[in-house]
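Appendix B. Chain record.
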Amino acid sequence: MTAELVRGQNHPLSQVRLEVRVSAGKPVVAGATLSDEQGRVRGVEWVAHPGAPTLPGLEVSQQAAADHRLAFDLDALPPAVHRVSVLLALPTATGGPVRFGAVAAPFVAVTGLDGAEIASFTLTGLDAESAVVALELYRRQDAWKVRAVGQGYAGGLAELLGDQGLPEARQLAGTINEAVAQGVARSVAAPPPRTPDGDRSRQAATSAPGPDQPRTGPGAQGAPGGTTSPQSPYDLAGPGSATPAPTGYPGGSAQPDPSAVTQPSSPAGGPIDYSHPGRRTSAPPPPPPTAPPAEPGRPAQPVAGDATGWSMDERLYNQVWGMFEDLARTVAAYRSAVDFADSRMEKELDHALSDPRSRIGGQGDAAREAARAKHADLVDQARVALDRDLAQLTAEAEVVEPALPTAYASWDNPVWHGYRPPMEIPMAVRLGDLSLPESGTLSIPMLMRLPLERGLWIDSGRAALDGTLADSDQLRRLAMDTAVAHAARLLAVYPAGEFTVHVIDAAGAGASSLAPLVRSGVLAGPPAVGAAGVTDVLARLTQRVDLVQMALRGGAADSLPPGLDTAEQLLIVNDFPHGFDDRAVTQLRYLADEGPSVGVHLMMVADREEAAAYGPLLDPLWRALLRITPVPDDHLADPWVGHAWTFEPSLMPAGSQVLERVLAQVAAARRPWDR
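Structure tokens predicted for this chain:
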């Protein structure tokens, strides 16, 4: 039975040798791009188009046509490929339509080699776009799926390829258009049959090219799997680079970095780039097979660490983000299907009742019942697909959560009972959990990359707690408890002597929450109180930022004063703006803007309304910080579809002694460094 997909919906693929058939009514250009796990196309050699129609594992048409047949052998794709995007574009300089809104909606179908349809998608809603990503074939849990994308680009192929991270996007778009203008029509043959030895990769790479085709395969220049093709960095551009759409993640990043949450609707928020730093020079080895292959027709059994990466921590990190993206997209597909069902029922009711004679009597009642029955059937189908995906993700979460290392684990995870101070800085740290109303009990860990690229603002303003407005004092206490939990986790996941925490508590209002940090002796000094304490701490940290910046700019990092603490610094500010004058506020803004780049980070516990007297002066400060809440709140958005996710902070279970035990071990490991 064919699955009729709506935008954002996915469907499992039970076979790897496939065809994608395109019917557009008007001539269109068809192509495909290969991308890695972060959704990035590594080079022009990863693009199949009329000028280079054959790549290992796929073949596309050589000319613009109203109908296309693209051939795929997913097992023959290079190991680094995790996504294949099917592209459609209107040809230029032909005198034909220049936007998809002027032609019939293109129809694409994924079929088996026998022609049986597996999934189909009609690309509706296009207008000024002249290029579109129609479908995406992607790998998850050693199984392939197809996702209906329908993402259009008014800037044509150049904008589309640029959005997938290809630096040579404009030049390649020109090459494709020229190849279409000069190309010769040619049908695309089905993938060759497999030989008994099963070497699919070699067969696909060396399938006989036609006389007008460039040579591809292991020995061809520029082929993705070729021996002479240059290696591309595994990771995306580092922090500060633009976040391509997925991707997005978060997101959000091209990868999103699974902490790729954004705050798009709040004036105090902004996109957060959690993209993976560009520190790789080649793709990491794939994870070792740890589970038997799934039986045909059944989903693969989830395995912890089933993602690419050099270490188990990196694999788990990437896997969490795969789960995050899958949950975002499957809920988007469900919501889109429900919206479609609502719209269809409304139109059918309007049409049936437009004739006054059918508004009363049995004919009108029958029309209404038929429309409601169709609506219920569509919603039920969407719910079945959602429940299927949620069940698979829940099973994966049940396997992944117990395997998480301390930096990623919740405080009630048994891994904390065997805690030992680490020797290396982890990739990320867990701030809490993210969930959607449709996800039920399923939640995704919210991981933030280390070292911190922006500060944290724990909002102690009035918020809903269990459906009622929480008491102001209660929220302040919860906000400070959240800050202490995050600070303790950061101290625990950094090696001894590489993370220092300072506290400003001008009014002494957070003394009870800060007690575990003070008693264990892990703070750099007693919490600063009063205006004098605020001035002293801010002066020392701003001086440190100035010294390190001057040393780095002058290329004299070794000339820093011998007594300077080179560890990462975290400043916790409670009850802002109490105790702050104009100079102190300016210094705080300076630390928020310039501190992260030189290892000085800010964590503020504050109610924005209490600082309203400063007016727009503090708007840049709030925008520079990631806002999180001490109680569940739905102010965060993912980088793929922009859902409003409910964030729940990671706090200590009631009555747990884990915090005291962990801080005691941190303090013991720090003693040799404090002498």
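Further analysis of this model is presented in Appendix C.
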